[in-house]
Amino acid sequence: MAYAIVRAGGRQEKVSEGDLVVLDRQAAEVGSSIELPALMLVDGDKITSDKSDLENVKVAAEVLEHMRGKKIVIQKYKNKTGYKKRQGHRQDQTRVKITEIK
């Protein structure tokens, strides 16, 4: 079974064909395909991590939907001063399906 380590939005993800992966928001329309840069490819016993060999590796993914992540609550509090601050954040995300690794 082949899998690849790809760079996606400042993070690295382990993907194989048919996987559904949630990435940071990608600038692509729903239904279009994107290409992710591979950092490492494992195909059985053969491991490819050389930069010149990885230029030939293509990891294609189809954009399924754009969504927003779970809400993160940020709270700051200082004792005895009456200071408290509450803030929330929801990350923009994209769900993709890995279509091929070649």
List keywords for this structure.
102 residues; mainly beta; 4-stranded antiparallel sheet; 1 helix
Describe what this molecule looks like in 3D:
Helix content is 4%, strand content 63%. The strands form three sheets. A four-stranded antiparallel β-sheet has the order 2-1-5-6. Strands 3-10-7-4 form a four-stranded antiparallel β-sheet, with no helix packed on it. It has one helix and ten strands; from the N terminus they run E-E-E-E-E-E-H-E-E-E-E.
Question: In a nutshell, what does this entry contain?
Answer:
One of its GO terms (biological process) is translation. Residues 83-102 are annotated as: Disordered. Helix content is 4%, strand content 63%.
List the helices and strands and how they pair.
Blueprint: E1 2-8, E2 11-15, E3 20-24, E4 33-36, E5 38-43, E6 46-48, H1 51-54, E7 59-68, E8 72-78, E9 83-89, E10 92-101
Antiparallel strand pairs: 1-2, 1-5, 3-10, 4-7, 5-6, 7-10, 8-9
Order of strands across the widest beta sheet? 2-1-5-6
Terminal Cα span: 12 Å
| Main beta-sheet strand count, sense and barrel state | 4 strands, antiparallel
Low-confidence stretches: none
Q: β content, as a range?
A: over 45%
- Please estimate the helix content: under 10%
Number of strands: 10
Described by the principal axes of the CA atoms, the overall outline is: elongated
- Helical/strand content category: mainly beta
